[in-house]
Amino acid sequence: MVTKEEFYKKRSQTYVIDDHEADFRYRRALDLVKGRLPNRSLNVAEIGCKFAAVRAIMDERRIAHRYTGIDLDAGALAKVTARENDVFVVADADNPIVGLENNVDLFLAMEVIEHVESPVRVLKTLKSHLAPGGMILMSVPNPYFWGEILHNLRRAPDVEGHLSSLTHINIDAICRFAGLKQVVRCGTFNRIPFTRRLFGRHKLLSSDTLFGARSMIFGLVRNEDVTVK
User: Fold this and answer.
1) CA 150 to chain centre
2) How far apart, in whole angstroms, are the C-alpha atoms of residue 58 and residue 19?
3) Nearest CA-CA partner of 185 in 141, 137, 218
4) Host H or E run for residue 134
5) Staple partner for 134: which of 43, 55, 130, 156, CB 3.0–4.6 Å?
6) Is the pTM of this model over 0.90?
């Protein structure tokens, strides 16, 4: 038996700071919410933040923000260079997040929900910290991605700690039970075959297609913030 803490402590040793796939996801996610958030300094929080790489992209795009990063692995957070007003918390997303304010404008959960024991409970927790008009941006692996299908057909072992595989129907049900409404969504990228062998890492191509998108990004808001037309 291995505990969740032990698994992710070992898994974190394989994390790379220059993660071009995470960078691609962040950029796609921020494109998705452009013009949908308040035009002021944002209170941003992220679960499963690893090295808090999204901060640099937000700086690049001149998105003023205050940042709170939450991760289960203290070792990963120890490698992060904290800036003024940044807050970092070692916490398990499956449990209540102690000390987080209830005025988060943007909550990021990128490639996290498939790891948690109760997606509904986690999303309810994130919702409870949202400011009025705030949004949750989450990404999950696309179970219909050709690489994911091949992985399952080959019965390859899990090395990521994924506890669930979430279709669009599952996402709709989880959001419904959590009191959230999906308002925007998009795909991320396709990994171009054989490029890792040639270049040392996968070349990526934007994709929104069912079998071509490695993961899907969803923008969620509280039901009470949805404007009825």
Assistant:
1) 23
2) 16
3) 218
4) strand 130-141
5) 130
6) yes
Largest Cα separation within the chain, whole Å, is 52
The residue among 76 and 67 whose pLDDT is bigger is 67
User: Which residue type sits at 84?
Assistant: E
CA dihedral 91, 95, 96, 101 (to 10 degrees): 40
Specify the residue for token string 């490639």: 111
Q: What is the pLDDT of residues 72-94, one digit of tens each?
A: 988 889 999 888 889 999 999 99
Residues in the chain: 229
The Cα-based distances of 27 to 19, 71, 189 in angstroms read 13, 21, 11
φ/ψ (deg, to 5) at 110: -95, 115
pLDDT tens readout for residues 153-201? 999 999 999 999 999 999 999 999 999 999 999 999 999 989 988 888 9
The vertex-81 CA angle with 76 and 85, nearest 5°, equals 115
Q: Residue 218 and residue 221: Cα distance in Å, rounded?
A: 10
Alpha-carbon distance of 142 to 148, in angstroms, equals 8
